[in-house]
Design brief:
alpha+beta
Amino acid sequence: MLFCLILAGKMAFAQQKIEKLQYAKTEIKVPEQCEASSEYEIFDCNGFSAQWLFLKNEMVEQNVHQQLFSQIEQQMNFKTKKELSFNSQNQPFTGYEYELDNGGFKIIGFGKVDDIFLILNLGFDKKTEKNKDLNEFEKNFITFVD
């Protein structure tokens, strides 16, 4: 009886597995072999990570997105930085691609999805330059402009 109570207590406090990500108004299924940290971030999903932050219109008018870009950049150790335009959910984004000191790559972008401003922070284990380098899950967040 005591064992059952302990087991039930542990199960009650266990975090439920997140099966869908909430990307603006779009729900994205988490791949079977991956685990999401929250509905707004997924780390190390076969060498890919994504997290995003929604911004209110007033925040954009006050250039909060530029301040956030600067803060994110200050926390990274990178070799190179280049401007980048891409799409997310078929909407235009602008940002930067960083080659990190550890050999990985980051893409930080700003744009609108479903009429909601957001900053998108993507991580890759290897360089991705073309849509053929992306899997279907990754294409939910980024497609390259030809």
